[in-house]
């Protein structure tokens, strides 16, 4: 399992995001079993109900499914679903504020594209 948990967002969200990241990087390929809520709880020393809340978010979204008595598994099409979800989040969290700030600074789309292509490298 991944990095340590932090205080920047709820733990159950971090658990869900860790599973999503594992799906994106093929740690958890489609059809594979993901760690149980008890495994997450033991690893992070958290309440199993908190871990379950994060896993159940992904079940509700159709990213994971439950095999009774066996565990949670990655749904077919989950990687595309997570990718689409993360792209939307990226757009809302980064692109919209970027475009709003560019408009305030009177940065043209062409100038903004040049800045992006430059990639933050000094000239």
From TrEMBL:
> Where are its TM segments located?
none
Keyword NAD part of the UniProt annotation: no
* SUPFAM superfamilies in UniProt: Winged helix' DNA-binding domain (SSF46785)
| Superkingdom | Bacteria
Quote the InterPro entries the UniProt record gives: Tscrpt_reg_HTH_GntR, WH-like_DNA-bd_sf, WH_DNA-bd_sf
Q: Is this entry keyworded Transcription regulation?
A: yes
Return one GO MF term. DNA binding
Segments forming domain HTH gntR-type: 9-77
Keywords per UniProt: DNA-binding, Transcription, Transcription regulation
Under which name does UniProt file this protein? Answer: GntR family transcriptional regulator
What organism is listed for this UniProt entry? Domibacillus epiphyticus
């Amino acid at each position: 399992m991944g990095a340590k948990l932090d205080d920047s967002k709820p733990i159950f969200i971090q658990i869900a995001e860790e599973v999503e990241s594992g799906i994106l990087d093929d740690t958890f390929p489609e059809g594979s079993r993901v760690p149980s809520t008890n495994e997450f709880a033991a690893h992070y020393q958290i309440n199993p109900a908190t871990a379950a809340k994060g896993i159940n978010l992904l079940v509700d979204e159709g990213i994971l499914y439950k095999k009774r008595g066996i565990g949670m598994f990655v749904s077919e099409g989950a990687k595309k679903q997570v990718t689409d979800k993360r792209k939307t989040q990226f757009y809302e969290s980064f692109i919209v504020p970027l475009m709003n700030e560019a408009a305030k600074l009177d940065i043209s789309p062409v100038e903004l594209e040049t800045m992006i292509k430059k990639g933050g490298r000094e000239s």
